[in-house]
């Protein structure tokens, strides 16, 4: 092998890495969002108004959705592989299939927007979001709604998930209002991520369940937000806690020492936050700071953002993160330099989440 070719091989081997791949994926997402006109996805998330609801987040654990709406730091990374597969399945499998089915009968639109309000006890609640593919007529008026989902396996699947029905009904109601018609039929199509097989459920709008379950859920959730109350740890479905990104904060993780923590701040001495979620939280909450655990774990972020100091439990003296030597072992926090001079070894603590809250002029 020539010297130049050997250099190329060495360069490629050096570049291909998990870290480089993550950076490349991030750049890809930024470029794609700009190309698709979704530039807001490249910016820090904003807190959603209490009365606003997304169809995809209806009829789920109230506490989980409150955490999500208030941009609480997530304890796990996004399932990008699942999101990517779902998107590709809709674009490259479901859409072509639906187009082949309707052929000269009708047309298929990628999506349609809904944005409408429902009267509630504390004012209007607003539901807005973007549908999955819709079968339309030549005037682009909706005829039949679809909801496309993927699962690891569809073997044994006998009925749609209730929160998927809630999403479908929210879109049905919105399209019916917008187009002054009755969109009361929909297809929930599940794709198998392993085999690409599908299972289809024909669903008809159930007004009683829509108002009794879903609208009631939305009104209750709005009350939690307006009253600034943390909802109880009471998921709508048994599986929710297993896949929740806030299970430690909530108190549902099997190995957690926390419970019923509010929506703001990082959990002290908790080192399981993914770096991108720490960065997302700090950018979404102007003035927020890292805790020493995360500053030690992510030094690049410590160069960009301020860090809370350590505090001694005995003498209450605070010590800057940079001034304290520590190996990052969360089971053995650093000893207070002041108290150790008196021969009393006392572990220091990080601020609790409530103490990390940034007080604004409005508050």
Short description:
It comes from Haloferax massiliensis. With 363 residues, the chain is α+β, with helices and mostly antiparallel strands.
General description of the model:
It holds the Pfam family PDDEXK_1. InterPro entries: PDDEXK-like_dom_sf, PDDEXK_AddAB-type. The chain has helices spanning 3-15, 18-35, 62-69, 80-102, 162-179, 207-226, 247-250, 275-284, 292-297, 299-304, 337-340, and strands at residues 52-53, 107-109, 113-120, 123-130, 134-136, 142-151, 185-192, 198-204, 310-312, 318-319, 348-349. It has 363 residues and is of the alpha+beta class. It has three domains: 18-47; 52-226, Lambda Exonuclease, Chain A (Alpha-Beta Complex); 265-356, no CATH class. The strands form three sheets. A five-stranded mixed β-sheet has the order 2-5-6-7-8. A three-stranded mixed β-sheet has the order 1-4-3. A hairpin with a 5-residue loop joins strand 9 and strand 10 (318-319). The termini are far apart. The model has no long low-confidence stretch (mean pLDDT 94).
């Amino acid at each position: 092998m020539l010297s130049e070719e050997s250099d190329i091989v060495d360069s490629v081997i050096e570049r291909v890495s998990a870290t480089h791949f993550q950076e490349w994926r991030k750049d890809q997402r930024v470029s794609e969002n700009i190309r698709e006109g979704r530039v807001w996805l490249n910016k820090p998330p904003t807190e959603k108004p209490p009365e606003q609801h997304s169809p995809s987040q209806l009829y789920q654990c109230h506490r989980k959705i409150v955490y999500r709406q208030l941009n609480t730091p997530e304890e796990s990374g996004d399932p990008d592989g699942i999101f990517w597969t779902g998107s590709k399945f809709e674009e490259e499998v479901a859409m072509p299939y639906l187009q082949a089915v309707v052929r000269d009968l009708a047309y298929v639109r990628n999506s349609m927007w809904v944005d409408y309000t429902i009267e509630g006890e504390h004012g209007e609640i607003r539901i807005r979001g973007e549908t999955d593919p819709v079968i339309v007529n030549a005037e682009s008026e909706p005829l039949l709604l679809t909801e496309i989902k993927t699962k690891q396996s569809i073997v044994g699947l006998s009925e749609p998930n209730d929160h998927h029905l809630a999403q479908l009904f929210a879109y049905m109601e919105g399209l019916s209002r917008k187009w002054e018609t009755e969109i009361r039929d929909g297809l929930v199509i599940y794709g198998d991520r392993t085999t690409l097989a599908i299972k289809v459920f024909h669903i008809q709008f159930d007004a009683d369940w829509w108002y009794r379950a879903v609208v009631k859920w939305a009104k209750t959730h709005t009350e939690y937000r307006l009253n600034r109350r943390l909802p109880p740890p009471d998921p709508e479905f048994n599986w929710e806690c297993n896949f929740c990104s806030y299970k430690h904060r909530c108190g549902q993780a099997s190995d957690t020492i926390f419970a019923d923590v509010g929506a703001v701040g990082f959990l002290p001495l908790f080192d399981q936050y993914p770096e991108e979620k720490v960065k997302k939280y700090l950018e979404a909450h102007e003035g927020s700071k890292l805790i020493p655990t995360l500053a030690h774990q992510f030094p690049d972020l410590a160069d960009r953002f301020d860090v809370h100091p350590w505090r001694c439990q005995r003498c209450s003296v605070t010590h800057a993160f940079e001034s304290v030597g520590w190996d990052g072992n969360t089971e053995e926090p650093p000893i207070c330099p002041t108290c150790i001079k008196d021969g009393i070894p006392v572990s220091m603590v990080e601020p609790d989440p409530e103490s990390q809250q940034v007080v604004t002029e409005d508050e």
